TrEMBL record:
PANTHER family: 2-METHYLCITRATE DEHYDRATASE (PTHR16943:SF8), 2-METHYLCITRATE DEHYDRATASE-RELATED (PTHR16943). Belongs to the PrpD family. It catalyses: (2S,3S)-2-methylcitrate = 2-methyl-cis-aconitate + H2O. Monomer. Residues 20-267 form the MmgE/PrpD N-terminal domain. Residues 290-478 form the MmgE/PrpD C-terminal domain. This is 2-methylcitrate dehydratase. It is an enzyme of class 4 (lyase).
């Protein structure tokens, strides 16, 4: 059964044995050699396919080209055989922390992989690049990789269930540092003490502000989780060498909770698996059918439905106003409640448009769908009728949708809302949606066939047909893979594709 761990701030004169610290409890979960359930293994395979999909679609985008160039500038470190870089030949390896960096940026760039939302929000698939990079470097087999990924998902999602970061303007990567470090610890079979030190360092080095997701959003949005993964790899390396971490990292008087989160009087109940309990958190996460912020997924599906039923709604001349009644989080993070003028700016960056539900709903309502490239194109954002419709759309917090957003009951938890469209003639159109079509409780839940279809769609322009089949055949045998086959768990771009993307020069 799951055990809730009471976490609070301790004054320096109070005694808190490290065995009672959250970082130690996390390390105990990571070190527990519990078998991985078959349905969890299947979902891990799905998410590796999902990561490869979005990475493939990003191979020639500027942040990925930059991160890849940095990784290629660093040779394989002496402690292992190195790690592969998405797009590059299998023989073109780098040190594991730099592979975690380059591949992490590729996975996050399009904001198009899996998600889990609770007290905090997250993309738990961000754990896969650093854990896979270390597995390749040390020669781990597929079974060990599966165990490591199961831990990474479990720890990040359990932290996300209980500890809110964004309320205090701390970026959500602060939950990735500890989770990726724990996952690597499981992969390597490290002892509790070593994982404990790595978890502490993983958290300490990844607490950053949420400005990376505010205002005019920069390319750092894609780099931030990759940085956390890179820090996790380095934290494990230091811990294995006997180096220690600030302690207690969560509960200390000058620690993360006291000064960055809810303050000295804070208390949390963090759920973690009991000893011997299987790590099944990944099954509570969900992927994206559309390349947009997760809170936009259901709204895109509702707009797609309305486009089909009432195509005249896409003409701004027919519309007086559109109000999306939704949760506090959606209203204030990607809605008009953010008070970000950039969310209504036709010249805003792709990253900013991705965090503008008024823009996303307008385009999906007009187009009847969403495309990971075309829907963000400058000419699409600047189209006069789209701008006119876009500026008639606002959001409003609705207490019931906020309550459902934060519900711990999976049958009640919702990420959508109710749309009220007032037409020019004074009549109204009202509709609602609770979860995205691809959600496990949605109209068309994603299954293995959907993950494979998504991979084929995004990979076909950049990978050879034989390479697509090679990767799919390999990844679906994940638990039985030999160390040599784990090294091949990457994607190789079509000849000349990477060379055609200008590589920026830096220090390395």
């Amino acid at each position: 059964m799951t055990v809730n761990h009471h976490v609070r701030v301790y004054k320096s004169e109070e005694t808190l044995p490290r065995e009672e610290q959250l970082a130690w409890k996390i390390a105990e979960v990571a070190a527990d050699p519990v078998p991985v359930d078959a349905d969890v293994v299947d979902m891990i395979i799905n998410r590796i396919i999902d990561n490869a999909s979005v990475a493939a679609a990003s191979l020639t985008r500027a942040p990925i080209v930059s991160a890849r160039a940095q990784a290629q500038a660093h040779p394989v470190s002496t402690g292992g055989s190195g790690s592969t870089i998405f797009g590059c030949a299998i023989s073109d390896k780098t040190s594991p922390e730099w592979a975690a960096w380059a591949n992490g940026v590729a996975v996050r760039e399009l904001d198009y992989h899996d998600t889990f939302l609770a007290a905090e929000y997250s993309h738990p698939g961000d754990n896969i690049p650093p854990i896979l990079a270390v597995a390749q470097h040390v020669g781990a087999d597929g079974a060990a990789l599966v165990r490591g990924i199961a831990t990474g998902y479990e720890i990040q999602m359990d932290l996300v269930r209980s500890i809110c970061l964004h309320k205090h303007k701390i970026d959500h990567i602060a939950h990735i540092g500890p989770s990726a470090a724990a996952g690597i610890g499981t992969l390597l079979g490290l002892d509790v003490e070593t994982i404990y030190q790595a978890v502490g360092q993983g958290l300490h080095t990844t607490t950053a502000t949420r400005q990376s997701r505010k205002g005019e959003i920069s390319t750092w949005k894609a780099h931030a989780p990759a940085f956390a993964g890179k820090m996790a790899v380095e934290a494990v390396d230091r811990a294995m060498r006997g180096q220690t971490s600030p302690s207690p990292i969560y509960e200390g008087e000058d620690g993360v909770i006291a000064w960055m989160l809810d303050g000295p009087d804070a208390a949390y109940e963090v759920p973690l698996p009991a000893r011997g309990e299987a790590k099944r958190a990944i099954l509570d996460s969900y992927t994206k059918e559309h390349s947009a912020e997760y809170q936009a997924q259901a709204w895109i599906d509702l707009a797609r439905k309305l486009h089909s039923e009432r195509p005249e709604l896409g003409d701004p001349a027919n519309i007086a106003s559109i109000v999306l009644h939704t949760s506090h989080h959606t209203h204030y993070v990607i809605g008009s409640g953010a008070n970000d003028p950039q969310k209504y700016d036709p010249k805003a960056t792709r990253e900013t448009l991705d965090h503008s539900i008024p823009y996303i709903f307008a385009v999906a309502l007009q187009d009847g769908g969403w495309h990971h490239v075309d829907s963000y194109a400058p000419e699409r954002a600047g189209r006069a009728d789209t701008v006119a419709l876009w500026h008639k759309i606002t959001t409003a917090e609705d207490a019931e949708w906020t309550r459902r957003y934060h519900s711990i009951d999976p049958d009640e938890k919702a990420f959508g809302g109710r749309v009220e469209i007032t037409l020019a003639d004074g009549s109204t159109v009202v509709d609602e949606i609770a979860v995205a079509d691809a959600h496990p409780l949605g109209a068309r839940p994603f299954a293995r066939a959907n993950y494979i279809a998504k991979f084929r769609l995004l990979a076909e322009p950049v990978l050879e047909a034989a390479e697509i089949e090679r990767f799919l055949d390999l990844v679906q045998r994940l638990p039985e893979l030999t160390p040599a086959e784990v090294t091949e768990l990457t994607i190789i771009a079509k000849p000349g594709l990477l060379e055609a993307a200008p590589s920026p020069k830096g220090l390395f």
